[in-house]
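Here is one chain, start to finish.
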Amino acid sequence: MTLDDFEIPVIPSVHAQLHIATILSKAENLIAQRKESIRLLDEFLKSTFLEMFGDPVRNEKGWEIDSFKNYGSLKNGLKVYHEMNRFDYLEYSLFRCFVGL
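Its structure:
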């Protein structure tokens, strides 16, 4: 092989390089803004949960604590059964949420 066998890419003009750099910089700023938005939404979600239900560890709102076995049983990690009540369910990926009727 000789040097004639290699292709060398043509470097764009300085103007084109600056244009590309500007676009990439704007994209980087948008990504940073999106990450900050996600962080703020996560913080809002956590604070809303705490406002509605209180800290689950401290049980500040005095929620009744009961055993899951009083409401149903977990089979294979996916299904909940209960003999006494009829349940309708909504399926979210691998988890099923049952609402008693």
